[in-house]
Amino acid sequence: LKSQKAAQILERDGPNQLEKPPKPTLLMLFVMQLTGFVIILLMVAAVASLVVNGTGPNRGDILSYTTGKAIFIIVGINAGIAAWTEHKAGDALEALSKMTQASIYVVRDGKEVKVDVPDIVKGDLVVLGTGDVVPADLRLVEAEDIKVAEMALTGEPDDVAKTWKMKPKKEGEPEKLTPENCCFSGCSVTNGKG
User: Fold this and answer.
1) Is residue 169 predicted with pLDDT exceeding 80?
2) 66-99 and 26-33 helices cross at what angle (nearest 10)?
3) How many whole angstroms separate alpha carbon 188 and alpha carbon 162?
4) CA angle 53, 40, 77 (to 5 degrees)
5) Which of 186, 185, 191 lies closest to 162, judged by CA?
6) Cα dihedral sign for 9, 10, 11, 17?
């Protein structure tokens, strides 16, 4: 694949990554904190306290409402702190993921070049080696004793041997979940190269 053609495909199809859901706002995180079971119980208790004190003999005394007010204030402070902490943790996680963005070798313009995984496009020849994480669903065109850990995909605990050869399906034989000439995104190469 030529670099110019790869750039056109990347422009047309977009990066090789899943769409990320929109990041929740601080207000949204605050409201989500108020939907927990225990928090709802505390707010119901605060409302009950205010209602009981508002209909009781001391309804004119402002100090009789302190318990309900205190519960509301504590719940609000707790939700605010939790929302702020979650917001900052999300920012830190996003910064960390940008720092550790994976890269892999592909063949472009007849040479092996290292590119970031999101810049891989349809038509790229990806060079896999031991320790690499498969950056996209791939069909092998060349393989040397390659094995892939597909446990996250299929639950199979043993590494799966892969080959570039297409094997014809025998009559009466069940179809395999993962073909022997394909590697799937997110699986690790544990042996060989392809």
Assistant:
1) no
2) 130
3) 12
4) 85
5) 191
6) positive
